[in-house]
């Protein structure tokens, strides 16, 4: 038996209900239109960050170069530069093991020392590696292979390597080791007192006070 032929009706479709403005899905900019750096710049909730600011509680410093900053050396980096006078304490943003260090470069911000900054690498338990750079000559207080605790003083800030004449601490975190450009990650800090941008990142020219944690 053939199926009965359905009876065709000519009922018009109901008119679409307009979506109220407030419930429309916001326009999402495809990440392909962002720079590779900005596409990686999603910082998450600072309250659950495994990092604290890399300086002692009570201290406050200004960001002089932020992440993906088009005006300097961070165009393709998610790092922060904290403007810090030579000799101020740098503390571990997260606990881990000292992976590499260098401290023989003078604090004279010279092209002669391009890429020869004093620095410290600390590997965390999840395999990520923190990079602390432009440290003061002969100021590193930890040794290769040593375990460091979050908040422990590890070095003094300096002006070694190419700092553009502005003493500062360069801080960034990488997924991989050896450090490879593009393998850095977006981090913020659970104890940063100060305004964050809409992505949860720290902002250029803003001060951030290290709050108790
Ligand atoms: Zn930097």
Give a structural overview:
There is one protein chain. This protein has 213 residues and is mainly beta. The protein has a single domain (59-210), classed as Glucose Permease (Domain IIA) (Distorted Sandwich). The chain has one helix at residues 36-39, and strands at residues 60-65, 80-83, 89-91, 96-102, 119-123, 129-133, 147-148, 153-156, 168-174, 184-185, 192-193, 207-210. Strand 5 and strand 6 form a beta hairpin. It is globular. The model has no long low-confidence stretch (mean pLDDT 89). Residues 65, 73-74, 79, 81, 170 line the site of zinc ion (ZN).
| Name given to the CATH homologous superfamily | Glucose Permease (Domain IIA)
Small-molecule binders? zinc ion
Rg calculated over all Cα atoms: 24 Å
Helix content: under 10%
Number of helices: 1
What is the fold's blueprint, element by element?
Elements: H1 36-39, E1 60-65, E2 80-83, E3 89-91, E4 96-102, E5 119-123, E6 129-133, E7 147-148, E8 153-156, E9 168-174, E10 184-185, E11 192-193, E12 207-210
Antiparallel strand pairs: 1-2, 1-12, 2-9, 3-8, 4-5, 4-7, 5-6, 6-9, 9-10, 11-12
The structure holds zinc ion (ZN).
Residues 65, 73-74, 79, 81, 170 line the site of zinc ion (ZN).
Keywords for this entry:
213 residues; 10-stranded antiparallel β-sheet; two-stranded antiparallel ribbon; 1 helix; binds zinc ion
Describe, in short, the structure shown.
It is built from one helix and twelve strands, in the order H-E-E-E-E-E-E-E-E-E-E-E-E.
